[in-house]
């Protein structure tokens, strides 16, 4: 037999009345704000009444004289007029409590968080096509960049170009070299001033991190805000201290992965504070695990993968070789793939031409970049146009030298035009930080004032 709807309604009304008697209704936001304001006023009045206890000294001519502490002072406005209401007041109280319990550095306001994550500048690789893959004009400062590849894939050459670009911008470069295979003559050909370069050759990873931290701290005392780049060539060729001190037949499985996992957790915050362009070179090796799905893996576990903001894979193929007039190898095309990108769009591919004698072919790379971003337009198969000038592709190098002087200067011009065309995002802080309204700025000032007053009262 079905129960009538009227009976069901009476049962539900009775249950609703019992729930209201057992659970009181929630306090409204206006009542909560008024109660917080009232409690703050009472606390302020009680604290001021304790401070204003008068003391009377012995009379000198028959009349009691008040002590100097009891002189009338101008009336101060009660702090209740400065207390903001709503959630900003609660946020200030919670922040003051955490600062008192865990220290000043335990709570970071929005501006401090932005300063840690802020990238004030970028250092390029002297290949504008790689900038197009990253989406920014260069590798980011305060972040970690990992460049991986197999043997003979131009990893070290790319690192030397990054150091040369740092010196061209007026910065300081640090080369942590553990492969024991670099030549100063090779660095000079690529444009690196060897006398101004800091070269470190540590014995193991522990010493490498200690050297990098010590050099960065000392350089930042003098070179405060300028570009600073560290290139580690390479992570895979650097043993850990346990391997150095052990015999050749002893097994030290996953020692590098364990050390890097611990070291990177400590080093990432240091990089963000010092605003260093950190570049780790790594090697790709065959994955022996058939069921993981990855054919190639990088050395050192997954710590460097997780802490990197940009990860680039460079590859070379024998089919991309170019021969000179004597049918000898003159250069090779290098393929660059972006597999991780926290500052732009990932999974982009590009290529640049590597001359075996001079490094990256800057003029050919500049021509390809201009066509990709729209600074240059292609006219037929053999000519390009810049504004009203029609240039043969074979004479593009001569045109760049006559108009801009050097390929580096022309690349800077093209990158600025690409930023205006919104093909690249700038590292300019004015572009990245949105403007705040007057109400938001007023609420921030009120919250900060309340936080300082609450901390002073508790002290």
State the major sheet: 10 strands, mixed
Low-confidence stretches: 54-60, 67-73, 75-86
Portion in strands: 15-25%
The CATH class of the domain at 119-241 and 253-360 is identified as Alpha Beta
Mean pLDDT: 83
Helix content: 40-55%
Distance between the termini: 72 Å
- Radius of gyration of CA atoms, rounded to a whole number: 33 Å
Number of beta-strand segments: 15
The structure class reads: alpha/beta
CATH topology of the domain at 119-241 and 253-360: Rossmann fold
Which overall shape is indicated by the principal axes computed on the Cα atoms?
globular
Query: Judging by the overall fold, what is the CATH architecture of the domain at 119-241 and 253-360?
Result: 3-Layer(aba) Sandwich
Total helices: the number is 16
Annotated CATH homologous superfamily of the domain at 119-241 and 253-360: P-loop containing nucleotide triphosphate hydrolases
List the helices and strands and how they pair.
Elements: H1 5-22, H2 29-51, H3 87-102, H4 110-117, E1 122-123, H5 128-134, E2 139-140, E3 144-149, H6 155-168, E4 172-177, H7 184-189, E5 198-200, H8 205-222, E6 228-233, H9 241-245, H10 255-274, E7 277-286, E8 296-298, H11 303-307, E9 310-323, E10 329-341, E11 349-355, E12 359-360, H12 362-373, E13 377-379, E14 383-386, E15 389-392, H13 396-404, H14 407-420, H15 429-432, H16 438-458
Parallel strand pairs: 3-7, 3-9, 4-5, 4-6, 6-7
Antiparallel strand pairs: 1-2, 7-8, 9-10, 10-11, 11-12, 13-14, 14-15
Helix pairs in contact: 3-16, 8-10, 12-14
Account of the 3D structure:
There is one protein chain. The chain is α/β, with parallel strands linked by helices and about 450 residues long. Helix content is about 45%, strand content about 20%. The strands form 3 sheets. Strands 3, 4, 5, 6, 7, 8, 9, 10, 11 and 12 form a 10-stranded mixed beta sheet that branches. It has a 3-stranded antiparallel beta sheet with strand order 13-14-15, with no helix packed on it. It is globular. Mean pLDDT is about 85; it is low at about 55-60, about 65-75 and about 75-85.
């Amino acid at each position: 037999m079905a129960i009538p709807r009227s009976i069901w309604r009476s049962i539900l009304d009775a249950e609703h009345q019992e729930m209201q008697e057992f659970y009181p209704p929630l306090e409204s936001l206006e009542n909560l704000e008024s109660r917080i304001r009232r409690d703050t006023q009472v606390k302020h009045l009680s604290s001021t009444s304790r401070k204003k206890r008068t003391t009377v000294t012995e009379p000198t001519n028959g009349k009691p004289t008040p002590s100097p502490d009891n002189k009338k002072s101008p009336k101060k406005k009660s702090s209740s007029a400065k207390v903001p209401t709503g959630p900003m007041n609660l946020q200030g109280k919670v922040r003051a409590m955490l600062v008192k319990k865990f220290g000043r550095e335990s709570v970071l306001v929005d501006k401090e968080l932005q300063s840690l994550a802020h990238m004030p500048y970028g250092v390029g690789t002297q290949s504008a096509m790689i900038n197009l893959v990253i989406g920014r004009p260069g590798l980011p400062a305060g972040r970690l960049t990992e460049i991986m590849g197999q043997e003979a894939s131009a990893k070290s050459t790319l690192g030397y170009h990054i150091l040369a670009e740092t010196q061209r911008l007026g910065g300081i470069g640090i080369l942590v070299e553990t492969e024991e295979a670099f030549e100063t003559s090779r660095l000079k050909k690529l444009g690196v001033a060897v006398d101004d370069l800091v070269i470190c050759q540590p014995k193991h990873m522990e010493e490498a991190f200690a050297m990098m931290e010590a050099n960065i701290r000392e350089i930042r005392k003098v070179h405060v805000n300028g570009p600073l780049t560290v290139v580690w060539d390479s992570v895979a060729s650097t043993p850990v201290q346990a391997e150095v001190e052990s015999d050749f037949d002893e097994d030290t499985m996953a020692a590098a992965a364990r050390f890097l996992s611990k070291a990177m957790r400590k080093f990432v915050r240091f990089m963000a504070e010092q605003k260093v362009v950190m570049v780790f070179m790594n090697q790709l090796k065959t994955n022996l695990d058939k069921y993981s799905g990855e054919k190639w893996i990088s050395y050192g576990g997954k710590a460097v993968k997780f802490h990197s903001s940009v990860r680039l894979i460079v590859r070379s193929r024998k089919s991309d070789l170019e021969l000179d007039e004597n049918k000898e190898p003159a250069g090779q095309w290098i393929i660059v793939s972006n597999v991780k990108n926290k500052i732009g769009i990932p999974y982009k591919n590009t290529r640049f031409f590597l001359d075996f004698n001079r490094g990256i072919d800057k003029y050919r790379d500049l021509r390809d970049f201009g066509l990709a971003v729209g600074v240059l337009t292609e006219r037929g198969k053999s000519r390009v146009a810049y504004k009203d000038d029609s240039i043969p592709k074979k004479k593009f190098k001569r045109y760049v030298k006559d108009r801009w002087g050097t390929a580096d200067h022309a690349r800077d011009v093209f990158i600025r035009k690409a930023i205006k065309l919104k093909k690249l995002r700038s590292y300019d802080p004015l572009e990245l930080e949105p403007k705040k309204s007057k109400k938001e700025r007023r609420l921030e000032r009120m919250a900060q004032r309340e936080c300082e007053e609450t901390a002073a009262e508790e002290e």
